[in-house]
Amino acid sequence: MTTPSAATPSTAPGTGHGRTPPAGASRGRGSLGPVGLVLAGGISVQFGGALAVTLMPRAGALGVVTLRLLVAALVLMVLCRPRLRGHSRADWGTVIVFGIAMAAMNGLFYQSVARIPLGPAVTLEVLGPLTLSVLASRRAVNLVWAALALAGVFLLGGGGFGSLDPLGVAFALGAGVMWAAYILFSARTGRRFPQADGLALAMAVAAVLFLPLGVIESGTKLIDPTTLALGAAVALLSSVLPYTLELLALRRLPASTFAILMSLEPALAATAGFLILDQALSATEAAAIALVIGASMGAVRTQVGRGRAKGPAAAS
Fold it and tell me: Number of folded domains in the chain?
């Protein structure tokens, strides 16, 4: 994704009020730092997803999403206390679309994992970010990493998904499309709003949109103390922490590299499924994990090398 023309090197988000950071700090935070944020967010969201699967019998898929979005919105609004005044119509439009994408991504994904296992669901969902990586990339080598990650994704799915519930597959693919939209609008929101203010506002939009669906499906089950406690844990692990980390990362990481890093999600989901849901890994799945990790490492090395190559020119 192209950075807006107003975001010049001296005024881009993350560099302070027009101050250019030291060259060494720019390289460190601009390449390896965001990668660490993305990985930490991925680990959190997949373990939160596994916990959500255990909560579905109590609250239903739509109920779990409602609790996740509501709790996350409340936490972020209290912590960030975003300003409601002083934003342009374009700013609000970006936040609203970001919130819609977030609500749709969560709703479709949880409808999917209610019908098919967590690993295959994430495997299908990640096709959205992988497609984005191909469309957004401007370097031929990134196409190679994307192809390698895509091979790993299909290998993790056992070479095909014909034995899965067709509706579950459709929901997972739809969630992948919304995930790609989430990546784009998360980056745009991060550039338009300070800190995590835009994320808090978008989360509130998503929660308001989804609340009627959760109430219709789950009713009073949503206010059961145990359900509320588990829903809060899911919200923190699956929304508050990972979305905040990813928003911060997308301020300094190209969308193409971020999207390829998302190919790690099936591996993280398989690990979470093994540890929490007792879903064992086969040799084929282990090989698939190696492929997606290799693709992600290649994407990171390409981005780090590109940043270092630009360093001397930027300093001159």
Answer: 1
